[in-house]
Amino acid sequence: MSDRGQREGVGDGASASREVARFEVRLWRCLDVDGNALAPLPAFAGDLDHLRRLYRAMVRVRTLDARAVALQRTGQLGTYASSLGQEAVGAALGDALSAADVLLPTYRETLALLLRGVAMREILLYWGGDERGMDFAADRGDFPHCIPIGTQVTHAVGVAAAFHYRREPRVAVCVVGDGGTSRGDFYEGINLAGAWSLPVVFLVVNNQWAISVPRARQSGAETLAQKALAAGFGGEQVDGNDVVMLRERLSLAVERARRGEGPHLIEALTYRLADHTTADDASRYRPGDEVEHHRQREPVLRLRRYLTRLGAWDEAQEAECLAHCAREVEAEVAAYLATPPAPATAMFDHLYEALPAALAGQRRELAEKGASAPGAGDHG
Amino acid sequence: MAEVTLVEAINLALAHALGADPNVVVFGEDVGVNGGVFRATEGLQRRFGADRVLDTPLAEGLIAGLAVGMATQGLRPVAEIQFSGFIYPAVDQIVNHAARLRNRTRGRLTCPMVLRAPCGGGIHAPEHHSESNEALFAHVPGLRVVIPSSPARAYGLLLAAIRDPDPVIFLEPARIYRLIRQEVADDGAALPLDAAYVLRDGGDISLVSWGAAVLDCLAAAELLAAEGIGAEVIDVATLKPLDSATLLDSVAKTGRCVIVHEAARTAGFGAEVAAVLAEAGLASLLAPVRRVTGYDTVMPLYRNEQAYIPDVARIVAAVRESLQFS
Amino acid sequence: MKLFNLPDLGEGLSEAEIREWYVARGASLKAGEPMVAVETAKAIVEIPAPWDGTVAKLFAAPGDIHPVGAPLVGFEDGDATAPPAPARADSGTVVGEVKSGGGTVREAPAPIAAGGAGFKVMPAVRALARRLDVDLGVVTPSGPDGLITAADVERVAGVLAEAGPLEPLRGPRRAMARAMAQAHAEVADVTVTEDADIGAWYPGGDVTLRLIRAMVAACRAEPALNVWYDPHALGRRVLKRVDLGIAVDTPDGLFVPVLRDVANRAEVDLRAGLERLKADVRARRIPAEELRGYSIILSNYGAIGGRYSDPVVMPPTVAILGAGRVRDQVLAVDGKPLVRPVMPLSLTVDHRVVTGGEATRFLMAVVADLQGG
Fold this sequence. Notes:
The complex is a heterotrimer of chains A (380), B (326) and C (373).
Chain A: E1 27-28, H1 48-73, H2 87-96, E2 102-104, H3 110-115, H4 120-127, H5 152-166, E3 172-177, H6 184-196, E4 200-206, E5 209-210, E6 213-214, H7 215-218, H8 227-231, E7 234-239, H9 243-258, E8 264-269, H10 288-295, H11 299-309, H12 315-338, H13 357-368
Parallel strand pairs in A: 1-7, 2-3, 3-4, 4-8, 7-8
Antiparallel strand pairs in A: 5-6
Helix pairs in contact in A: 1-2, 1-11, 1-12, 2-9, 4-12, 5-6
Chain B: E1 2-4, H1 6-20, E2 24-28, H2 44-48, E3 53-55, H3 60-72, E4 76-80, H4 91-98, H5 101-104, E5 114-119, H6 134-138, E6 144-146, H7 151-163, E7 168-173, E8 182-184, E9 197-200, E10 205-209, H8 213-226, E11 231-235, E12 238-240, H9 244-254, E13 257-264, H10 269-281, E14 290-294, H11 305-308, H12 312-325
Parallel strand pairs in B: 2-3, 2-4, 4-5, 5-7, 6-7, 10-11, 10-13, 13-14
Antiparallel strand pairs in B: 1-8, 6-12, 9-11
Chain C: E1 2-5, E2 15-21, E3 28-29, E4 34-39, E5 44-48, E6 53-58, E7 65-67, E8 71-75, E9 120-121, H1 123-132, E10 147-148, H2 150-163, H3 171-186, E11 189-197, H4 207-221, E12 227-230, E13 235-238, E14 244-246, E15 248-250, E16 253-255, E17 258-259, H5 267-282, E18 296-299, E19 319-323, E20 327-333, E21 336-350, H6 356-371
């Protein structure tokens, strides 16, 4: 390295450059894969009922996911995206957000939506091809599933901008997958969040796979969390299968945003144990032993081991929990299956606030076709 | 009542909306401090503050997504895309979200946003700044597409668009931003959307147009009147939803129609108008419906742009051909 | 070893108890054969073999609680390190279902076939024509490219209005319109003419009877003209009898009653028959069967006037003889000019069936008979 001296006064001492920024990304975890505490757990974890609630929540969605996959396999549900292996994400989200906050999910946040008041039958209706599944009866404010990947990120900053504009103590929480962080919308959204210091938290759920493209091919960055640094705010990694730590870090980030201290990004490291969707076959592109490896690290197992070791969970509670979840799922599945399809003319409802005259003729044509009762058994 | 240009009328409408409804928020690139590259938002940030008139980073997809997010929370975002040639990154958000949010959530979430953009050529600009892409948006269910052709209609239609509970793409023809002045009462009165405007009465032929081409149609009608030919001039104004009743009534009266638009011919919005006339007005037609349009070429750079843009001579020629047909 | 994991049994459970193995190590299985019974909270489920193979290892014993997704059976054959074969067929999509169809498409793209010449007329003008009761078929287009304009329609409407109301053709006129059109469309008509010097018996003789006699003679000479033709079967019937159609002109139109078997009847009988037919026709009491079945036609228009003609052959007959008005004419007889009564004759035949030679010979036979005493 040659010594250029202080020709233009930019160097200090003998070097031509000086450090203008330095970043650090930390990984947070308190429960190891076997469910042992690595460090003192966050305060809330002292409340074992709270932990059991988190555990039951994860079992709830696992039960629903398995049942939904089975429904799809038997032609009673369309394509479905299971969150098997990622249950801690939903449990942490449902726990860390307040009712006034707005959640902008991907399409794999089933548990988070359930905990925010969405009914299981609504989840099933959506994947069952019925728009009414997004008209969440008891969760009026959250965004529905988002299929165009990453486009929810710019919505999230719009929502946060509205909170900021109105000076409301509310936070937008945006979930995006590892694949989604490659999208322009992601960069544009986090950029604005940093530029305007908006009350938004980005949860990057890195389940290692974007359909068949592994994380290593998705980005050259060592962590996805560091993308936040390029947008001017902090990013961290959390073990996404450690529901305790994930919930803690999420709560901290959400509360900071609520206090007006700006956005934050959490990269939750987890693993997609299921196929991308029921139409996908992951064994085409990933080895079984890799899946096995991660199955031993999955969040439900981990928390169960921790609780069991503490004496806070046993076989009887497990059986009761499974049975309870199975009963709830069965009742919701029955309600879903019993829901008749909306009339075909429903496609004209809610197109605009009021149907324009220009469309009245088309709606009439469809209504006269007698197409108000679509084919029977159209649940698949 | 002042005489204002079209872009000044836009400014008046935005100011009125900002003043009347605290939910209205204006944003885009260079709209704040600079007042917009065409001065459409001149003075607004000074009057209403930097939290209501915002300069965004350079990201059109973001601008549209931001508008969607804000609109779901009950704000009334009026976002600007600097030129319609740069609207394409926003199409994902417009088509996949703005246009269908109400529909897919069964009305639970709605999207009362306006996306404004200057459109069309004739301003001697570098490439990419002279696009006419209204047909892309007119094709999308759940959107409204509005194009004013006069200061008064710019004022009234923009107010209507801002107050509309659903997303509106509001395209402003740049070459007539300052070309004409008109008396516009700044009284906050909106004009009806979904309605076409008959600007000149005539019995021999219907000239149907929108945007800057409306002015050329009016000039053509003036020339034809001297020869005793009565041309009825209609400004479609809201392309979608289309006021086909007004167009059909006119053609029922005249039996002949020439559609004029600057955008390229094939699958341009004129094709939709022609189809509507064929479906519901065929029995009235004495001559085939003609379209006078931009060619099916890339908009040329400015040296040749006048050759591309339909002018009065081409309109008049088409009218004559139509009259001579039968 | 190829591993088969305990599949998701669709009851929301993460494990199942092994109840009973139906196979042991070394067993050879076919896909679909029951391998093992497991119990869930709800039921006992039999799990079939996922593929053909030989059992290498069983990973659980009866009574074990086995997790869903954990290896259950190992099969021999195949690479030990290879991932387990997918338990389901490749869906070939990542969302929804892309159905496979059964059929193979065979296409033979062809250009648009020509056909259907319609009128070129704008719908509004077509409607105008309908309102003015103008048949577009009679309108000469004056617009570009054969376009019928409103002006054209209005012009024709004016012309027709001046011409007076349309009188519909009735009865025999209607029938004639149809019959002649059809005949004209079908027949390949050829006409040959000749004159006959009838000075040998004219004046004084019965012109019609002499014509009838001449036709009989000609039919004997050339039977090919006394024939019914079937154009579909491409066949003809040479008729034994000569049933002569006689063209009779009336104010109501043309009639062609039939004088039957003219070859075998006496003159007196023929004359009486002829008068009766004419009377019946004029009185409009002729029965339909007497208007049918002629084998050849005679049109003696010469009674009114006219010289040569091109009469219309009426299918299924193939010939019609026209006789014009007798006139005095200077002829060369033995080298000297003489004034003689001359009857012009026109014979039209259907050349689909009758040759020129046959037609000419028939006509010369008629002439020869008329020129006889």
